[in-house]
Backbone:
DNA sequence: ATCCCACCTGGAGCACACTCCAGGTCAAGC
DNA sequence: GCTTGACCTGGAGTGTGCTCCAGGTGGGAT
């Protein structure tokens, strides 16, 4: 293989990103990914940039951003550099939600731990 | 109102727990709540204990426990005190998942924040 | 040549957790 | 006595995010 621009097969992208092949196709279909390049046989060949974008998607998904909002973000990215302030605003709003989410998680987790400790005190 | 055992109307439980009336009925239907007591007209009257249990449900739900597992937990509670060790095991396993979830959230949030900072550096 | 495997498409199906609806009951206030 | 509003039931519908399927292509190893 010529080491030109580095290119990934679907299988390699599944490996790298943890998204299933079906999910990758789904993301392309709904426009979360730009149309992925193809080889002569019509098979997808992902660029480094595609894989990087999928890393971003992974962060946003894992922090609970709905797909609809990721689509809005993708749209901003597509529109070019003059949307950077909007992207900051979108990500900051998301970041605040993540913060709240972590706080709530921690609070409820503490309650679960109290319950565990109560049960331990009963059982000992 | 006689201040006997304290009793809650559906509306009051919605208020207290943040679950919708439909969700409360749904939880009763699937057996996550024991059958709720009724007044003469067939309307639900929740006890303090029901509301307390709903608080537990709220913690488990908010920390991402699937309903199927909450059902298993409810089952253990129903079966009585000899299941306390099993309950501890179930909650500890859940607690570990919550811990992992928070860690992942924090990690991905940091990446989002890096992105924000990068965008800020571009825009400034 | 043949087999296998990774990949392709369009479209249907699924799991989860609710949420809504039609049609009805009852009690309280005007 | 009528309206309003909170509540009831069984059952259907919804949104989200995938996931699976049938039927087919093309390339590399044996």
Residues:
């Amino acid at each position: 293989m010529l080491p030109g621009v580095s290119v990934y097969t679907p299988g390699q992208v599944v490996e790298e990103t943890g998204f299933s092949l079906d999910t990758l196709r789904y993301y392309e279909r709904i426009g979360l990914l730009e149309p992925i390049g193809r080889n002569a046989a019509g098979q997808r060949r992902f660029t480094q940039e595609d894989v990087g974008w999928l890393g971003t998607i992974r962060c946003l998904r894992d922090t609970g951003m709905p797909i609809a909002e990721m689509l809005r973000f993708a749209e901003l990215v597509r529109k070019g550099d003059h949307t950077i302030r909007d992207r900051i605003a979108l990500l900051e709003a998301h970041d605040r939600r993540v913060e709240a989410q972590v706080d709530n998680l921690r609070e409820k987790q503490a309650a679960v731990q109290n319950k565990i400790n109560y049960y331990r005190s009963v059982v000992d």
About this structure: Residues 81 and 87 of chain B are 10 Å apart (CA to CA). Chain B has a mean pLDDT of 95.
